């Protein structure tokens, strides 16, 4: 169980890494953790309202963004583009040149080098700025004279400030039209996006209202036609199979849904835990590495600053010492000259005190000049030391600026992580919306299946009613058969009594008992539609002439049933099974019961006719009168009535059989149509689900990835 889970987890991790989702999730979790850690701290920052970026800052951010894109730093680019406020769309190179007051040739595309990559716009802009700046080498001359006063220096500094302020104002005034133009472009882009979204929504609504409605109507018509064609063959089997399949499908779907949901939840939890743990470890390692690198950079910066200051001081000291040695050599030469002059003065002491006084004054002047030069050298040394301190202050400012840049990069990373989190949440919402729509489509298909099932249930109820009517007809036939049995018993009893009365009359008259005459029957060709009947022949029973005696009835076998009428047979190729008489037990039993009814009717009519004949013969024998034409007419009338009654019963039985066969045929056709309709409905459900998914996919593609 653990190995498939590990395989699935590794496949999921590879898929996330291949699509870039893994890096996005890492960035999101990293920024979320940093935000949480910073929010827990004592100095919780207050949210700053969004502010409009100045054009100079936008131009600088655009240069950095283009530089990161040209350097292939995708991660830093994603962080910086989200936190810089540009929205991933940097300014054009000519706009950047206009804002920063650079020549447009400075950002012209440079030819690629052998490695396949050229310099970015940032590198070319820095090179252009370096070329525009004056050279760092200057020739300075030293003049011994009085320095500038502090008031003059202050006035010069104010003039420089005024010039800078005026240049900044000119730059801001030149940037206003560009900002206004950019605002108009943004508004036009928003309006165009809104119009495109409205058009896409209208098109999707039209497709849903017209085309999907037509597809549903055509599919419903086809399904109804199939249901009406097939329902007559497979209804009973379909009802059992449908219930069983529905239960199995519901159970399987529910179990699969639960297993899938549990599996997805477990995978998601495991993936998130592993992702959070790995990102936590990476964040810790990266924070340690950044702290070490920051410490090394600070140490190297201090060392470089100290080395530069020491080098400057050493150079200034060497220059001062060289100047001092030069002045000292000059002083030594002057002293040598003075000594020579003193020697000359001593030699020429006689020349006078005035020459000595002039030489002493010249010496004193030279000493004062040397002292002044020594003071100037000392002040220059102090100025050099102050310049070295200013360089160290500039390096400290640079270090503070680098710290601010690192803080800005961290903020950009946090904003990029926030945007990645929002994108992930939007993707989750889209997935949920798509799942909800698929579930709604499935529910709609289930409702359509339930409607078809209700229609099948109604058809089944109608067929049950038809079967109940057929059963009632069978019960009526059984009751009629029982009534005929009772009538036969009564006729037999009456015949027995008549025979006994006849024997008594014969005994009373003293003659032998006369054999009963059979009534005249019409020829078979006279009445072609008459039912089959028995031709009884009467003879005395072997028991003699007692009251318990009787007559035996010799009957001919009944004629075969008539052929099945063409109206009862279903048409060839009608989708149902062709009905043939005697093809099932029900038809055979019905035919046998009809034959028995006809036989009983014929026998009852014969018995009644024989009773009337016997009574007429008995009364004629008693009165000495022979039965004439009236008796024969009466017998013929009774026989015609019996035949007519038998024909009516046979027609009713055949009509009931025809109705039963028609109901059975319709029931079989409805069953077969239902089975075919189920398969068609399943195919139509799959097609409609495919149509819905395709429509949702087209809508998501045309709507820019949103539902």
UniProtKB/TrEMBL annotation:
Ranges of compositional bias, category Basic and acidic residues: 637-663
Designated name of the protein: LisH domain-containing protein
Native species: Emiliania huxleyi (strain CCMP1516)
Superkingdom of origin: Eukaryota
Keywords: Coiled coil
Residue ranges the record marks as coiled coil: 414-504
Biased composition (Pro residues): 513-534
Region (Disordered): 134-154, 507-584, 627-707
GO biological process, one term: epithelial cilium movement involved in determination of left/right asymmetry
Any single Gene Ontology cellular-component annotation: extracellular region
Phylogenetic classification of the source organism: Eukaryota, Haptista, Haptophyta, Prymnesiophyceae, Isochrysidales
Biased composition annotated in UniProt, kind: Low complexity: 664-680
PANTHER family from the UniProt entry: OFD1 CENTRIOLE AND CENTRIOLAR SATELLITE PROTEIN, ORAL-FACIAL-DIGITAL SYNDROME 1 PROTEIN HOMOLOG
């Amino acid at each position: 169980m653990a190995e498939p889970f590990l395989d699935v987890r590794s496949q999921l991790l590879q898929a996330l890494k291949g699509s870039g989702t893994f890096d996005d999730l890492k960035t999101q979790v990293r920024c979320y953790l940093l935000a949480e850690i910073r929010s827990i701290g004592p100095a919780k920052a207050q949210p700053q309202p969004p502010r409009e970026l100045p054009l100079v800052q936008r131009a600088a951010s655009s240069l950095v963004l283009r530089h990161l894109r040209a350097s292939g730093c995708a991660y830093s680019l994603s962080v910086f583009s989200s936190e810089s406020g540009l929205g991933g769309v940097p300014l054009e190179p000519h706009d950047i040149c206009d804002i920063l007051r650079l020549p447009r040739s400075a950002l012209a595309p440079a030819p690629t080098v052998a490695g396949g990559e050229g310099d970015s716009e940032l590198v070319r802009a820095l090179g252009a700025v370096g070329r525009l700046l004056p050279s760092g080498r200057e020739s300075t001359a030293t003049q011994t004279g009085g320095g500038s006063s502090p008031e003059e220096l202050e006035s010069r500094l104010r003039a420089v400030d005024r010039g800078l302020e005026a240049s900044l104002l000119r730059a801001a005034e030149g940037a206003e039209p560009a900002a206004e133009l950019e605002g108009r472009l943004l508004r036009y882009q928003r309006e165009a996006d809104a119009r495109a979204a409205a058009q896409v929504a209208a098109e999707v609504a039209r497709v849903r209202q017209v085309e999907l409605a037509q597809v549903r109507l055509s599919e419903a018509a086809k399904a109804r036609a199939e249901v009406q064609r097939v329902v007559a063959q497979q209804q009973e089997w379909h009802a059992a199979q449908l219930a069983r399949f529905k239960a199995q499908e519901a159970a399987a779907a529910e179990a699969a849904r639960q297993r899938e949901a549990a599996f997805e939840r477990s995978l998601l939890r495991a993936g998130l835990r592993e992702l959070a743990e790995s990102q936590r470890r990476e964040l810790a390692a990266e924070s340690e590495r950044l702290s070490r690198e920051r410490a090394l950079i600070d140490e190297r910066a201090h060392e470089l600053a100290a080395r530069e200051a020491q080098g400057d001081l050493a150079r200034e000291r060497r220059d001062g010492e060289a100047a001092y040695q030069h002045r000292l050599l000059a002083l030594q030469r002057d002293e040598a000259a003075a000594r020579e002059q003193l020697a000359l003065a001593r030699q020429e002491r006689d020349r006078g005190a005035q020459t000595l006084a002039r030489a002493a004054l010249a010496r004193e002047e030279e000493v004062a000049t040397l002292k002044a030069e020594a003071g100037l050298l000392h002040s220059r040394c102090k100025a050099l030391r102050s310049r070295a301190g200013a360089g160290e202050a500039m390096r400290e400012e640079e270090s503070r600026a680098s710290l601010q840049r690192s803080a800005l990069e961290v903020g950009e990373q946090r904003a990029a992580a926030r945007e990645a989190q929002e994108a992930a949440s939007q993707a989750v919402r889209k997935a949920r919306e798509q799942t909800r729509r698929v579930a709604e489509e499935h529910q709609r298909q289930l409702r359509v299946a339930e409607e078809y099932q209700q229609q099948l249930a109604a058809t089944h109820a109608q067929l049950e009613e038809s079967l109940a009517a057929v059963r009632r007809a069978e019960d009526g036939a059984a009751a009629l058969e029982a009534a005929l049995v009772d009538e036969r018993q009564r006729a037999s009893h009456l015949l027995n009594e008549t025979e006994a009365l006849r024997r008594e009359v014969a005994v009373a008259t003293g003659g032998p008992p006369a054999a009963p005459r059979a009534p005249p029957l019409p020829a078979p060709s006279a009445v072609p539609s008459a039912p089959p009947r028995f031709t009884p022949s009467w003879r005395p029973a072997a028991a003699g002439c007692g009251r318990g005696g009787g007559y035996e009835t010799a009957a001919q076998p009944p004629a075969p049933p008539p052929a099945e009428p063409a109206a009862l047979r279903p048409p060839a190729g009608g989708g149902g099974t062709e009905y043939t008489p005697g093809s099932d037990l029900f038809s055979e039993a019905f035919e046998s019961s009809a034959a028995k009814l006809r036989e009983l009717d014929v026998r009852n009519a014969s018995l009644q006719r024989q009773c009337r004949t016997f009574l007429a013969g008995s009364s004629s024998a008693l009165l000495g009168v022979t039965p004439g034409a009236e008796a024969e007419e009466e017998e013929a009338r009774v026989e015609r009535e019996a035949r007519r009654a038998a024909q009516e019963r046979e027609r009713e039985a055949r009509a009931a059989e025809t109705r039963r066969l028609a109901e059975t045929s319709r029931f079989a056709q409805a069953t077969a149509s239902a089975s075919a309709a189920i398969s068609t409905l399943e195919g139509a459900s799959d097609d409609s689900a495919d149509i819905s998914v395709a429509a949702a996919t087209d809508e998501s593609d045309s709507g820019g990835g949103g539902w």
